[in-house]
């Protein structure tokens, strides 16, 4: 079996208790994603955003390192955030920035380590 030499940190973050108005502001949210990527030294290759009616937003940044996305549900003060990168601490920097800006009252983060054989050591995000 060939050893797969690509590893990554994939974090699924649930943010509850965010301000509903912020979660429905498409311009604010795409700018926030861009800044999270910038703060984490990620390279943005492309972006896509969609504002739902009557409310909600989905934004995606395609990164050289992988991707960063957000799906918001203003009616529930909830945001689902997905960050997949090569690790090295940049995933955590992006999530921490989003926490600072969106100020959730409750956060659940799930780390999925990608591309690591069972016997390999874990990485930190």
Summary, kept brief:
The protein is α+β, with helices and mostly antiparallel strands. Helices cover about 20% and strands about 40% of the residues.
Keywords:
single chain, 125 residues, alpha+beta, S-adenosylmethionine decarboxylase, six-stranded antiparallel beta sheet, 2 helices, 6 strands, globular
What does this structure look like?
This protein has 125 residues and is α+β, with helices and mostly antiparallel strands. It has a single domain (8-74, 87-114), classed as 4-Layer Sandwich (S-adenosylmethionine decarboxylase). Helix content is 22%, strand content 38%. Strands 2-3-4-5-1-6 form a six-stranded antiparallel beta sheet, covered by helices on one side. β4 and β5 form a beta hairpin. The two termini are 27 Å apart.
Q: Report the CATH topology name.
A: S-adenosylmethionine decarboxylase
What is the tally of beta strands?
6
Structural class: alpha+beta
Return the string of H and E elements.
Answer: EHEEEEHE
CATH 4th-level superfamily: S-adenosylmethionine decarboxylase
Number of helices: 2
Termini distance?
Answer: 27 Å
Average pLDDT metric: 90
- The rounded Rg comes to 15 Å
Strand content: 35-45%
Q: Give the quaternary arrangement of the chains.
A: single chain
> For the report, how would you describe the main beta sheet?
6 strands, antiparallel
């Amino acid at each position: 079996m060939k050893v797969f030499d690509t590893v990554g940190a994939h974090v699924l973050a649930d943010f509850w208790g965010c301000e509903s108005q912020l979660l429905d502001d498409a311009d604010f949210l795409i700018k926030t994603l861009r800044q999270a990527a910038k703060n984490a030294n990620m390279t943005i290759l492309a972006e896509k955003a969609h504002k739902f009616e009557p409310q909600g937003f989905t934004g995606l940044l395609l990164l050289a390192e992988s991707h960063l996305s957000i799906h918001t549900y203003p009616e529930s003060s909830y945001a689902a955030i997905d960050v997949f990168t090569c690790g090295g601490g940049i995933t955590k920097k992006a999530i921490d920035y989003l926490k600072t800006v969106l100020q959730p009252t409750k956060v659940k983060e799930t780390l999925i380590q990608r591309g690591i054989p069972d016997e390999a050591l874990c990485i930190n995000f």
